[in-house]
Design a protein that fits this description.
Radius of gyration: 21 Å
Number of domains: 3
Oligomer: single chain
Structural class: alpha+beta
CATH architecture of the largest domain: 2-Layer Sandwich
Strand content: 25-35%
Mean pLDDT: 96
CATH class of the largest domain: Alpha Beta
Number of helices: 15
Shape: globular
Number of strands: 20
Length: about 450
């Protein structure tokens, strides 16, 4: 096991990793920008190192500063959390060259799954069902029109190195291909430094379903069931559930085993999430995230497994602590992402939290690093916490969520809590009758009424 882990992240995920390390008896190092000097994970870590000014490129994305912090403190491993450098193969290789463990998959696996075109090819080779689309990148407008005609409209043009909805455009007919193709390429270049795009069939009313996997790099891999992450705004998830209860359990276990078997073939090490669109009874692979997900707590609640603990163990060379047959599932869990944003306009709302009272009680978990008097900086993602509730059934879980939302108080800044309080009463939410487009349509309808 590692002696000292440096946490190359901030916010709630840095605190989540820190807690897991402490429970394993591992010393911790927090790195932070000058804007995060008073962050909770910095206060609780055994050591802390300032790695630069607020812009992420000068601190949390600045690899030389993070490696230097490892050498100064003697950290023998780095946990990247999610975002920032968590899926950066170059970072993993640099750490390896300094004999510092990267708590995540190999650089090779990060590379093949980080490129969406290569990931799709790999998925097909591993027997994972994929969305019909181009065999590789599409280099010209003429080629785009040919591929789209073969697939059938509407189509989705996507950045090969994309994520978070950037570099993604829909074309409903051939007349829309030109602008969609050029816009997707320019957005991809600006956001990721890579203008490569590919084309997939655009599904009309799909659900977004994930399968959580963990491997130990020794040919052993398991899945921890499914998550439904269909409630999205601009391709960003805001609420996640586990399991994906609208899908028959037999189908959920079937796709889970397909994913686990693929990870065994790949000899994958660490946590990962394989994401699908699900429509008309079929799963279609869209991407794999080779890191911890924001929504991992809902899977932990229904399996009673500490995913971060398992990440650290397998990165240290240990085999998986459980076999597939030993994984059991209980109840239903829902996570709401609490952002410091205006619930109507979604504009960021940085500032000082003047009063903070998180929800509590049976079946309630709050993953957050904020506190009363904490000043939310304007430089980073607006996520300030996650409210996770668990119940024996989905209905019980929803009732518990309603109660927890009523208890949760954050004053001094605007948050998305009011949005969830409105959503909880929507019939579509109560019956889980929604798809990835539902939330935006609901929001638009609300704006028109207002």
């Amino acid at each position: 096991m590692f002696q000292k882990v440096l946490i190359a992240n901030r916010g709630e995920i840095a605190l989540r990793v820190l807690r897991a390390c402490k429970e394993l008896g591992i010393a911790t190092v927090a790195v932070h920008s000058t804007a995060d000097a008073n962050a909770m994970h910095v206060r609780l870590a055994d050591e802390s190192v300032c790695i630069g000014p607020p812009p992420a490129r000068d601190s949390y994305l600045h690899i030389p500063s993070i490696v230097a912090a490892c050498e100064i403190t003697g950290a023998d491993a780095v946990h990247p959390g999610y975002g920032f450098l968590s899926e950066n193969a170059r970072f993993a290789r640099i750490l390896e060259s300094h004999k510092i463990a990267f708590i995540g998959p190999s650089a090779h696996h990060i590379e093949i799954m980080g490129d969406k075109i290569m990931a799709k090819k790999t998925a097909l080779e591993l027997g994972i069902p994929c969305v019909p689309g181009s065999a590789g990148g599409v280099a010209s407008e003429a080629e785009a029109k040919k591929v789209a005609k073969d697939i059938g409209y509407p189509v989705l043009i996507k950045a090969a190195s994309g994520g978070g909805g950037r570099g993604m455009k829909v074309a409903k007919s051939e007349s829309e291909i030109a602008i969609a193709f050029s816009t997707a390429r320019s957005e991809a270049k600006a956001a990721f430094g890579d203008d490569a795009v590919y084309i997939e069939k655009y599904l009309g009313k799909p659900r977004h379903i994930e399968v959580q996997v963990i491997g130990d790099g020794k040919g052993n891999a398991i899945h921890l069931g499914t998550r439904d992450c269909s409630l999205q705004r601009r391709h960003q998830k805001i609420l996640e559930e586990a399991p994906a209860s609208t899908i028959a359990i037999e189908r959920r276990m079937e796709i889970g085993e397909i994913c686990a078997a693929a990870m065994r073939k790949l000899q994958y090490s660490g946590a990962g999430t394989i994401e699908f669109l699900y429509e008309n009874g079929e799963f279609y692979f869209i991407e794999m995230n080779t890191r911890l997900q924001v929504e991992h707590p809902v899977t932990e609640r229904i399996t009673n497994m500490d995913i971060v603990y398992e990440q650290i163990r397998v990165a240290g060379g240990e085999p998986l602590s459980l076999t597939q047959d030993e994984i059991t599932y209980f109840g239903h869990a829902i996570e709401c992402r609490i952002n410091a944003e205006d619930a109507e306009t979604f504009a960021p709302s940085p500032g000082t939290i003047t009063y903070y009272h998180p929800a509590g009680g049976v079946g309630v978990r709050v993953d957050s690093s904020v506190y009363q008097g904490y000043k939310i900086p304007p430089y980073y993602d607006s996520l300030i916490g996650k409210l996770i509730v668990h119940g024996r059934t989905r209905d019980e879980c929803l009732m518990r969520l309603r109660r927890a939302l009523d208890e949760f108080i954050v004053d001094g800044v605007k948050t998305t809590l009011p949005l969830f309080r409105r959503l909880i009463d929507e019939p579509a939410i109560k019956t889980a009758d929604y798809d990835i487009h539902w939330l935006e349509a609901w929001l638009e309808a609300g704006r028109k009424k207002g």
